[in-house]
Design brief:
Strand content: 15-25%
Largest sheet: 2 strands, antiparallel
Strand order of the largest sheet: 1-4
Helix content: 55-70%
Number of strands: 4
Number of domains: 1
Structural class: alpha+beta
Order of helices and strands: EEEHHEHH
Radius of gyration: 12 Å
């Protein structure tokens, strides 16, 4: 599944939709903190390409960094998408 990390939709407390760009923050976090070269390379792609095709294993790797580095408002929207990738 392709995900564009520069266009993540979140909702504020009143339910208003908003688009946020997390590509640089997420990509940099993954690149600098990954223990695995493939995960670091994925972080590099997210940072530079913004929209990437993820398989199930990659989605779960991204999820680890989302859970560690982002606030609940973003987790609420992004984690179900990552979990749905087969």
């Amino acid at each position: 599944m392709k995900i564009d990390f520069s266009k993540v939709q979140i909702k504020d407390i009143e339910g208003n939709a908003q688009t946020v760009d997390i590509s640089k923050e997420l990509g940099n976090m993954m690149y600098l903190n990954a223990q695995d070269i493939a995960v670091a390379d994925l972080g590099h792609d997210i940072y530079h390409k913004k929209e990437v095709e993820l398989n199930k294993e990659q989605a779960q790797n991204v999820k680890v960094f989302v859970e560690q580095g982002f606030k609940a408002i973003l987790k609420r929207e992004l984690i179900p998408i990552l979990d749905s990738i087969q």
